[in-house]
Amino acid sequence: MSNEKKVRAYTNIALIKYWGKRDDQLILPTSSSLSLTLDAFYTETSVSFDDSLEKDAFYLNETVQDEAATQKVSRFLNLFREQSGMKAPAIIKSTNYVPTAAGLASSASGMAALAGAANLATGLNLSPQELSIFARQGSGSATRSIYGGFVEWQKGTSSSDSYAVKVDDANWDIGMVVVVVNKKQKELSSREGMKLTVATSPFYQGWIDSTAVDLVNIKNAINDRDFEQIGAITESNGMKMHGTMLGANPPISYWEPDSVLAMQLVRQLRKKGIPCYFTMDAGPNVKVLCRLSDSEKIKTAFLDYFNEDQLIISGPGSDLKEITL
């Protein structure tokens, strides 16, 4: 039996989006992506293997989960059991400090934290690169939550070279204001939305081609710490992803009226001289990339239209870390 181990992983928001898989089982993406890890949203997960258990037990936010959710976690833990030779069932306790499945990437921090805790509990002591490969097989975006700062998920050619690498610590004046339009679980999952877009959107190949260019350009901008260029590429890339979804059959839109309002407010703030840029994942919530020093001003402007609890300021998040029990 292994001692209980607990890990915290921060969520990440893609600036260059991941949208589409070339291998559903291994979760290999059709293009590389780049994200910013955020310190305001995270998941803490503990794993404890115990020979006396009959089967895995999974608790999320102190509530025991149904068979389907538990099986997903069990399949992921099997990667670690097979690698380590451990056969014991486990108790998994996870607390999400992120609204689940509402377009705020809770699966990224959730699977990254689970991977980190399983790595320690099995004694595998995988390197961050190896752990990124394991995390990817639970949730694609989780591969990036192993690291803090700006992170690139390299699409690779196979499972062994599709992993994330840190691009920059982002330990400079950069942050986000997250506008929580709707905390409810979305009707169409990212997984299904991706499949439909890849299969039916005539814009998809154009999206793939332009994303490769965006990735090169944003990495150069990060290296130069050119915030305006980082923001402009981020905003353009996110809107291209949503445009590609609108080309699917039937069309996919995660936007709500308040999503559009938030985007309009960002444009207005830019005209007033505050550099800020919006992006959206598969959900209605809007993320405003900004200088952290401008975040309070941006939040104040949004308070004319949104409630205090809908506006969350975040700085850059850090690497995966163990929580002492």
TrEMBL record:
Record the organism. Carnobacterium inhibens
Query: Per the UniProt record, which EC number(s) apply here?
Result: 4.1.1.33
An example Gene Ontology molecular-function term: diphosphomevalonate decarboxylase activity
Family of this protein: Belongs to the diphosphomevalonate decarboxylase family.
Q: What class of enzyme is it?
A: lyase
Please give the name of this protein: diphosphomevalonate decarboxylase
| This protein's encoding gene | mvaD
Ordered alphabetically, the record's keywords are: ATP-binding, Lipid biosynthesis, Lipid metabolism, Lyase, Nucleotide-binding
Keyword Lipid metabolism attached: yes
Q: Which residues form the Diphosphomevalonate decarboxylase-like N-terminal domain?
A: 9-164
Pfam families according to UniProt:
MDD_C, MVD-like_N
Q: Which NCBIfam families match?
A: mevDPdecarb (TIGR01240)
- Which residue ranges does the record assign to the Mvd1 C-terminal domain? 176-309
